[in-house]
TrEMBL record, chains A, B:
Residues annotated as binding Zn(2+): 262, 265, 364, 423
An example Gene Ontology biological process: L-histidine biosynthetic process
Protein name, per record: Histidinol dehydrogenase
Organism: Halochromatium glycolicum
Gene Ontology molecular function, alphabetical: histidinol dehydrogenase activity; NAD binding; zinc ion binding
Catalytic residue list: 330-331
Catalysed reactions listed for this entry: L-histidinol + 2 NAD(+) + H2O = L-histidine + 2 NADH + 3 H(+)
Source species taxonomy: Bacteria, Pseudomonadati, Pseudomonadota, Gammaproteobacteria, Chromatiales
Length: 436, 436
């Protein structure tokens, strides 16, 4: 029997119970932080030598020298050539769809000319070099390689550098094949905080990157936070979540399985269903009981559902949408007859899966949009990973002589109001009096 | 005599000297971090009561109760009504130009339908509530209020909450007037780490925000870093910088004053000129010597130029552009006859000021583009503050029955390859076999 929480929006303590359910604070372990700081300092000071030492110690294989840290480029294409055809086809189909969606996201520059002949604009450029962290061992997800690498290449990043730890020298062929498909330019068999430090600061062998993306364990996440500023990073993700809003007309087995698909990630994952039909919630609960024992990862699913899941009864669809906006979920399924009308009421969500046929799992792998999404209510202020994360903007200003003269007075008045007279005089040099 | 560094790209140690010159690491002071953590914990635990205590202690005035922390909305419009007409006009001119530029940045959603009838898209929504930190006292810059607030309002942020400390109860009328013009919705007379904590977590009186932007001292910056994740934040800025590339034909007094305009911000500011004409560098050096004693902030300027400034001789324009890309400056002036050709070679810069008439000071106040820009080489991976920082994206996926059936096989194959069978089964429920 799962003990998934049952909440009603009419409960007097609903707000508090929901807050408790959603609460997630990544504990910043002082021990981890200190270890990571030491690793970063060692990589900065000793470069490849430290990288070899840490790899031997943490990944339990001994690189014979620094050149052994690099993966031969042909290694990726060989993996692609040797994986089963069905997997290769699935990876290529997914990659094509991810690329097609990403191409819609590419930002373009623009400019305009004002009445005084001053040109104003925005120039868009790709990042030069990006590092992609890929976890090794069991949690190696080829889909994550596609999702992180393809937007970078669509943005025009010239060099995409993958790092992947090889515990006891073991490589995941699907990960390498995905890297080949996604267009990874260079790869290194390193991982952990030492790989993040190498990507951020560079070593003799590993080139310094401008941004580091990709998931990792607590050491990787802590290292990414530590090097932020030196390089850009993507969001540090919390546990994965799904929120489903259902009108009570979807097959309850489908909804149960969608809840499982999040819960199977790990014990901290969060699966929540909101419906405005009490009987339907019971039918989903019955599906959960029936299907759970069939699942390969039933223990993980049960823990996640018991500790962080919920079945919530709302008064109606509008109230369900209001609760969804409060939760600001990573994944939001709108399993209703008219998903467009409901989607119009949603202000905060990483990805919205509309209609009964749009299982979140389709989005996780191959629908096209990215599966790297804001977690832990950060969809209130942040966005899915996209091409725009690998592009940046520069403002362009080109004042004509007339334009500079027109602006000089305003700039000078404001600069003097702030006590910055060099600013004022710099503007005044281009002003009308100086001209005359 | 200033002792501004002279470098030549042909010097054997040029790379090292340039790296040393650019090196900037914000020292993370453990004492500051600990104080900030305590303040955040107190605000979270005690709310307004702690806010009143800290305000009395740090800002040296005693709020009679929590209501005294809020600024009356009429206070802003009164300030606007009472400032000198020239300043009001300058603020309004600047605001109109900043707004006009920002409107070009607004992102719009999009969608498309694939061959199987699956709709894919991206929905764009504004942030609900944004907190704007404005420093009090001497470093109170009304231009920063405009630059931070206007993009948020153009994005459609419904509630913009300003906090501004009032040391010994003193308010800056220009800051309040700028807030009125920019459309700030609510304002509080609080500052420091306690104001950041209040904006991040909310108190009885101060509403919790989704993002916090705006400059501040080391306590404010440390607090913003600490609450990042709970809320979004803008970049934590380093010292301001200007890099000027000049072909030797601009009045050297103009260039000297442009270098001063950065250097006068503070002793850590960085002003660098690159030219490919050794005589011209000497003429600028002479202008610096002649003009410096006239400057109100000559001591600050001299320290900044001596400690962090440089006059660099390059071989030619192309080499100067390459050095500029290595520096990735916050502000880049292209003081040359053909700025467009040179701008095409620039990959990394926060803002590019093109041609001899485009003084950086014009951009600081009123050209239109934002003056909140990436510092300390972060233009390699980040962008000026803009409307897009106050919008976020949600992915939209609406699979048709046929589309879901087409995607199910791919998703299932990839999910099983990753050992995630609930994902696979969730996709398969929508697949062709299940349909039949």
């Amino acid at each position: 029997m799962t003990q998934i929480a049952r909440l009603k929006t009419t409960d007097p303590d609903f707000d508090t119970r929901l807050d408790d359910l959603l609460a997630w604070e990544s504990v910043s372990d002082t021990g981890v932080k200190q270890t990571v700081d030491e690793i970063i300092a060692a990589i900065r000071a000793q470069g490849d030598a430290a990288l070899i030492d840490y790899t031997a110690r943490f990944d339990r294989w001994q690189p014979r020298d620094a050149s052994a840290l690099a993966l031969d480029p042909t290694r990726l294409s060989e993996a692609l050539a040797h994986i089963p055809a069905a997997q290769r086809e699935a990876l290529e189909t997914a990659a094509a769809r991810i690329r097609s969606y990403a191409e819609h996201q590419r930002m373009e520059g623009w400019e305009f000319v004002d009445g005084d002949g001053t040109r104003l604009g925005q120039k868009v450029t790709p990042l030069d070099r990006v590092g992609l962290y890929v976890p090794g061992g069991k949690a190696a997800y080829p889909s994550s390689v596609l999702m992180n690498a393809i937007p970078a290449k669509v943005a025009g990043v010239s060099e995409l550098v993958m790092v992947v730890p090889t515990p006891q020298g073991e490589l995941n062929e699907l990960v390498l094949a995905a890297a080949a498909i996604a267009g990874v330019d260079r790869a290194f068999a390193i991982g952990g905080a030492q790989a993040v430090a190498a990507l951020a600061y560079g070593t003799e062998r590993v080139p310094a990157c401008d941004k580091i993306v990709g998931p990792g364990n607590i050491y990787v996440a802590t290292a990414k936070r530590a090097v932020f500023g030196q390089v850009g990073i993507d969001m540090v993700a919390g546990p994965s979540e799904i929120l489903i809003l259902c009108d009570g007309e979807t097959d309850p087995d489908w909804i149960a399985m969608d809840l499982f698909s999040q819960a199977e990630h790990d014990e901290d994952a969060q699966s929540i269903l909101i419906a405005w039909d009490a009987d339907y919630l019971e039918r989903v609960a019955a599906s959960i009981e029936r299907l759970l024992p069939q699942m390969e990862r039933s223990a993980i699913i049960a823990t996640a559902l018991n500790d962080r899941g919920a079945l919530i009864l709302a008064r109606d669809e509008d109230e369900a949408a209001a609760v969804a906006n409060r939760i600001a979920p990573e994944h939001l399924e709108l399993s209703v007859a008219e998903p467009e009308a409901l989607a119009a009421k949603i202000r905060h969500a990483g990805a919205i899966f509309m209609g009964r046929y749009t299982a979140e799992a389709l989005g996780d792998y191959c629908a096209g949009p990215n599966h790297v999404l804001p977690t832990s209510r950060t969809a209130r202020f942040s966005s899915p990973l996209g091409v725009y994360d690998f592009q940046k903007r520069s403002s362009l200003i080109q004042a004509s002589a007339a334009g500079a003269a027109a602006l000089a007075g305003t700039a000078s008045t404001l600069a003097r109001g702030e006590g910055l007279t060099a600013h004022a005089r710099s503007a005044e040099y281009r002003g009308p009096e100086h001209e005359a």
